[in-house]
User: Which sequence fits this backbone?
């Protein structure tokens, strides 16, 4: 069992930055591929970024390439999402996710965090 707790969300102006953190419980954090999803009001939850177990490979959705960076610290059991050049369309609840499978998509997620709200004002 893995518990994921996000933090770092908030209100920011267009062009600003935020750093989200996801703290994982347990001693098996490094055995999971990790990532972030987001869900805007009235929309489906969408994948935005993933990182492999060792942290040396990442994959980003086109909507966030060049602006968002994912990283992890396996010694601290923590996942990070650095978000720069934020836009109003980035407003959503952001969820941390863990999968034991090779590919991270919504149907392969083993564990979800509770979500943290990010609001970008125009």
Assistant:
């Amino acid at each position: 069992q893995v518990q994921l707790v996000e933090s770092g969300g908030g209100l920011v102006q267009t062009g600003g930055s935020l750093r989200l953190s996801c703290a994982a419980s347990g001693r098996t954090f490094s055995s999971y591929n990790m990532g972030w999803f987001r869900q805007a009001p009235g929309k489906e939850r969408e994948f935005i970024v993933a990182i492999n177990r060792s942290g040396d490979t990442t994959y980003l959705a086109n909507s966030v390439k060049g602006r968002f960076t994912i990283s992890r610290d396996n010694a601290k059991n923590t996942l990070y999402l650095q978000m720069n050049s934020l836009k109003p369309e980035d407003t959503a609840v952001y969820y941390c996710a863990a999968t034991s499978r090779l590919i991270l998509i919504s149907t392969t997620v083993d564990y979800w965090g509770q979500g943290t709200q990010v609001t970008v004002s125009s």
Remarks:
- The mean pLDDT is 96.
- The chain has no helices and eleven strands.
- The two ends are 40 Å apart (CA to CA).
